[in-house]
Amino acid sequence: MGGTKLTPSSSAASNGLTRILAPMGIKTAYCALFLIFLALLGCGGVGTHAGGPTPTPTPLPPGTIPAADHVFLVILENHGFAQVIGNSSMPYLNSLAAQHALATNYFADTHPSIGNYFMLTTGTIPTNDDNFTGTVSADNIPRAFAAAGKTWKGYMESLPSAGFTGGNVDPYLKHHDPFVYMTDVLNSSAEAANVVPFTQLAADASAGALPSFAFIVPNEEDDAVNCPGGAVTCTDDQKLAAADTWLKTNIDPLITSPALANSVFIITFDEAFDLDIRNGGGQVPMVMVGSHVKTSFKSTTLFQHESTLRVILDLLQVTDHPGNSATAPTMQEFFQ
User: Most CB atoms within 10 A, among 128, 184, 187, 296?
Assistant: First the structure.
């Protein structure tokens, strides 16, 4: 305190202070001066000026999600967190998990596959039958995007043709393509045209015509569920290695593209192995990448697929949240 020096603005002020402080000891006088200085600050007596300290930016309010130009969701198949994270057979995905954001307490919702694909797009589980032949009229992503003026496409590897809504055509699996069950898509040729072969992704990227939301699903030889290249037998590590190579080849160019700098990329697995029924579908990895996503971040919050659906809509500033996504925990903690 003894190093503080106050300079009165006039001799009158100086004389006034001298009369007030004279009876006090030196230490007490300086303390009194310091209290007067604090009082001036509180009353606005000491103003800010150019070149002063820069105010600390106000943190994002709880639940706030930054706006993204594009969101990409990539879904792999049937592997649990412990099978993937730390596995040397998946160096690329593990590098993303280490450098960007990883959900370490993330669970699928059900077994088998189809219910998880619906949770990621409708917020509901209308069926757990992979051979389901019915239709789904519940609120869904295409409906929410149409109302908000946003665009979407489902890029399905090995889909026979754009707008195809038929059954399995090996190695394309219909139950990995939730859009072809939705009445919004089945009853609209324009919406059905948004379900396209995966090869269209590179063409759309090259033309600068990517949609707001891209739903990306490899075929069953590249998604870690079956042996690559149609082989009859292989090890599980070979399945994972093939999926990792597919990600590196097809998704990394998008992640590293300057044109997609304001985008968010989410990579997850539909479900864990069948015996893991924790929280319905077992623990799976979920990796998030993007310029607004925290780096080297590990979330320990319990999340499931409905939170991924919610964050997709939040990132694209869509207010309709179908099904369970309306009440799912927010993923705001992933963003900086």
Answer: 184
The C-alpha atoms of residue 249 and residue 308 are separated, in whole angstroms, by 24
Query: Which residues touch 306 (CB under 8 Å, ≥6 apart)?
Result: 109, 119, 123, 323, 324, 325, 328
**CATH 3.40.720.10 residue window(s) in the chain:** 70-334
3-class secondary-structure state, position 197:
strand
Q: What pLDDT does 64 receive?
A: 80
Average per-residue pLDDT for the chain: 87
What tokens does 294 get? Answer: 């925290």
Tell me the CATH number for domain 70-334: 3.40.720.10
d(CA 78, CA 333): 27
Q: Which are the contacts of 277, defined by CB distance < 8 A and separation ≥ 6?
A: 111
Cα–chain center distance at 34:
50
Per-residue confidence at 43, pLDDT binned at 50, 70, 90? very low
**Over residues 9-18, mean pLDDT:** 40
Token readout for 190 is 């324009």
Largest CA distance in the chain: 99
Q: Which amino acid is at 175?
A: H
Between CA 289 and CA 294 the distance in angstroms is: 8
pLDDT tens digit string along 78-133? 999 999 999 999 999 999 999 999 999 999 999 999 999 999 999 999 999 999 99
For the entire predicted model, the pTM comes to 0.82
Q: How confident is the model at residue 37 (pLDDT cuts 50, 70, 90)?
A: very low
Calculate the CA 265 to chain-centre distance.
7
Bridge-based pairing of strands 263-269 and 70-76 is: parallel
Tokens at residue 212, please?
């707001």
Quickly tell me which residue has 């993007």 as its tokens. Answer: 290
